[in-house]
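B., you asked whether I could sanity-check this one before it goes into the benchmark set. Here's the sequence:
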Amino acid sequence: MFGYTKQAFYKRSTKKSQSKDYLDQVKQEVMKYRSLLPKLGGRKLHYLMQDFLSSNQIKMGRDQLFKYLRESNLLVSRKQKYHKTTNSKHWMRKYPNCVKGLHIHRPEQVWVADITYLTCNTKHHYLHLITDAYSKRIVGYKLSNNMQAETTVEALEMALKGRIYDEKLIHHSDRGLQYCSQLYTKILNANDIKISMTEQADPYENAIAERVNGILKDEFLLDIHFGSKEIMETQVKESIALYNQTRPHFSIGLLTPNQAHLQQKVKLKKWKKKTHLQAI
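And here's what the prediction gave me:
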C-alpha cells in the first residue's frame, strides 16, 4: 500500500536501530574525553577517537562527527576575554626581540613566559607560566595572589630544575617588570640563558604564551570563579598535567607536549599572522 516491500521495511528498521546503537557508543566515547578535556575541539576529538572507531567498526569521518556534535549540542564555543597583566612602563632595562624570524627546531631552544589571571572568591590570582616554544610543554608554573618578581622566579626555577637538554636556550617574554627585574635576569644570566623580549604591544610577538593561556582557560575551564584557593590549586595542577600528557596539538603533528618534548624531528606548523591562533 505504501510502495515498500516487507523486506525493505524491516531492513530500514534494522538500519535505524543499528545507527542509534553506534551513535550511543560514540556519545559515550565523546563524553569520556570531555570529562577530561571539557572544551576539546572537534578535530582533536576525532583524532583521539580513531582507535575506538576502528575497533568498533564505526565509519565516521570528521564532518560526520561535527554534524553529530552540532545536532547533539556538543560543539564548544570560544570565549574572548582580555585582562592586562603587563606593566611595561618602568625604568628597568628592556631587551630586544631575539626570536623574531627564528627557526625553532628543537626542545629547550626557546622558552616563552607569561602571566594570566584567575579568579577566586572575587579576588584575582595569577598563574605564572613558562612554556617550551617547540614542544608546547608547560615546563614551569606558579600560582599566586601577586605578580611580584619573586613569584615569577619560582616558575623559572621549576623550569630550570626540569631541564633535560644541555644546549643554548633563549627566554622570551613581554616587557613586564617581573621579567626585567634584576632578580629575574640575574638567574637567567647565571644559567647562560639569552634574554629576549617583545618590542611592541603586539600579542603576536609572544603568541605561543598567549595561546597557552587561552587553552587553559577555554578548554580546561580555568576562567571560572573558584570557590576556594584549594580548589583552584588542584584544578590548575590537574589541568596542566592533562595539557602536557593528553591534549594533542596540530602545530606539532597531533602529538602531546610531553611526546614532542622528547623528539627533535617534529615539523612545526607555521601560521600567518592574520590566521586565528588555533594551531596548538
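One thing to flag: The chain has a mean pLDDT of 84. Otherwise nothing jumped out at me.
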